[in-house]
Every structure is written in C-alpha cells, then in structure tokens.
Amino acid sequence: MLKKELLLQNPLRFMERENEDILPEGGLGVVLARAGVGKTAILVQLALNTLLKGKNVLHISLNDPVKKVGLWYKEVFRHLTKPYDTRETNQLWESILPHRFIMTFRVEGFTSSKLEERLTDLEEQNIFSPQMIFIDGFQIDDTARTSLSDLKDLAKKHSLYVCLTIKTTGIVSGSRNHAAQKSSDLTRHGL
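Below the sequence we write its predicted structure tokens.
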C-alpha cells in the first residue's frame, strides 16, 4: 500500500514512458549540473523510485564511501515517507534494501571494462544482478566520449539502464555555459 502511494505521488512518474521506465532498456541517462545543486539527491530519488518498483539497483560512487551513500538513501527515503506510519515505512525500507548494492571506485580507476568485470563477478556468484546502474561523480575528460559509448554498450549488452551524474564548472569559450557545452558534446556523439 505505502509502496504504491509513494510511486503515485512521485513527480518522476511524469518522466516515465509507457512501459513505466524513464529510460529505454539499454539506455543511458545523464544528469549535468554544477556542484551543490542536487545531482546526488536526484540520482538517489531515481534509484529509490526504481527500488520501489521491485527492481535491483547498483549504485556506484566515484567520490563518496559506501556509508555516506547509504546515508543519502536513508535521508531521502525518510524525507519521502515522513507523513506515513513509522512501522510501515521501516518495513518498506527493510524490504527494498536487499535490492540495492553500493559499490565504490576511485574516479581515476573507473572504466566500463572494470565495471563489467565487477558485474560479471557479482552475477556469476549469484550475489547481485542489477537492472539499473547509477554512477555518481562521472568525470568528463578526453576519453569521456569513448567511456560513455562503452557504458551505453554495456547497458545494451546486459539489458539494463545506466544513469550518471557529471559535475559542470565555469565558463567555456566566452559566455557559453560548461553544462551546455558538455550536453552539446554528448548529443552530437549520439549519447
């Protein structure tokens, strides 16, 4: 009952497609914003929405330790369920936790091939099999286009969804916003 209410009142439902998912299977979504405006919060809310639908979520943090990411989930969940009965919200929280797996990488050590190795390890040992992957803190550099293409290929290969955050900063080429530049670059390369 509570799960259904949370899904119905979630504003993210307006972004969903007919099949009830925001991204198509094998899709790649990107949240671009400057530091401190809520990229991690929206990623966690998207993940919680996915968890409430009974799907498995792999959350990868490239900046924060597992414990801090876990606190993000707990805080956003508590905020969403504040008006509801504590006992019922605690039961729901406990029921979705087994469907979430948090993993960390160092930013400079993260590649889609390393992610695929870890995914294979988790799946072959029947530890965890995600249906959606959230990557928080992805860095844009000279190899980003290749990395993003590889992530998109990984999503298609494993029939899952990938959503990531990218921090934007400063001004690029005069008055052009860095977020607009990154967005334009991603769109131009079919990402």
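Helices lie at 2-9, 39-52, 66-81, 86-96, 112-124, 144-157, 178-188.
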